[in-house]
Amino acid sequence: MKNKKLICLALPIMLSAIGCSNNDIEKEKKTDNLQVAESEKKTETRSDKDVIKSLNEEVDKLHKEKDELEKKIQDEKASKEKISKEKDELEKKIQDEAASKKEVSKEKDVIKKEDKIEDNTRFSTIKEYQETVYKLANNFESELRATKPIIEKDKTLLTNKDELKAQYDKVQVQADKIKSLHPPKEYTDLQIGLIDSLTVYQKAVAGMFSGLDERDKEKVKGYEQSVMDGLAYFKDSLNAIKEIKE
To answer: CATH number for the domain including 109?
Structure first.
């Protein structure tokens, strides 16, 4: 009997314990499910962020490539425009030089004709010719040096252009005097050298002032170099005359 009573007492307790155990299991299952769901949610959220970040990076990369392409196109366009401008300037310079050479050729023909008909105006000796050339060359150089302080007033030549032009006209007068000389017949080639060099110089000066009138800096710069070339040629021609011994 006692055993039966014990069993009867124990059975509800055991059942109660089992019931508690089942409840705990159910709670654990629910907790696990919530944790799994939360984990999956976090994983999905992380995955979405990674996708958005990747897309943003790709968009930034495309924008960068677009900007680089546009810059490259602009650079190529600027380069082509520069090449085209340089080509036009070169063609213009070639045309000017061709015209200058044509004029020099005409002047050479005139000199050769004058050599035949103007013996009374010709220097009889090379010494007389040299002395006159040196004298006129000194006058030429003096007038040329007088342009320097004028240029120093305004190196842009915007405010002193007219004053400079007036002084260059004085230089041109001396250049024309040198070009008009007639050496002894056997030294005609020396005179042609002087004429060639001074013609290059005079044409360059005219081109330089044309560029100033047009406010074309590149044109002015190009003719400034031609002015220097003409003066260097003139110096070489003078040296050739000085080397002649009677």
So the answer is: 1.20.1440
Residue 62 corresponds to which amino acid? L
pTM (whole model) above 0.85: no
DSSP 142-190: HHHHTHHHHHHH-TT-SSSHHHHHHHHHHHHHHHHHHHT----GGGHHH
The angle subtended at Cα 48 by Cα 45 and Cα 50, nearest 5°, is 110
Q: Which among 79, 97, 80 is positioned nearest to 222, based on CA atoms?
A: 97
* 9 within some domain: no
For the chain, 246 residues long, give each residue's pLDDT as a single digit of tens: 545 444 444 445 444 444 444 555 565 566 666 666 666 666 656 666 676 777 778 778 888 888 888 888 888 888 878 877 777 776 776 676 666 656 656 655 555 555 554 555 799 999 999 999 999 999 999 999 999 999 999 988 889 999 999 999 999 999 999 999 999 999 999 999 999 999 999 999 999 999 999 999 899 999 999 999 999 999 999 999 999 987
Say what the pLDDT of residue 113 is.
52
DSSP annotation of 119 reads: G
Q: What is the longest distance spanned by two Cα atoms in the chain?
A: 175
Answer whether residue 174 is part of any domain. yes
Q: How many CB atoms lie within 10 A of CB 51?
A: 10
Question: End-to-end alpha-carbon separation of the chain, Å?
Answer: 168
CA distance to 44, 192, 236, per residue, from 111 (Å):
99, 8, 20
Specify whether the CB–CB gap between 126 and 244 falls below 8 A.
Answer: yes
Range of the domain at 105: 98-242
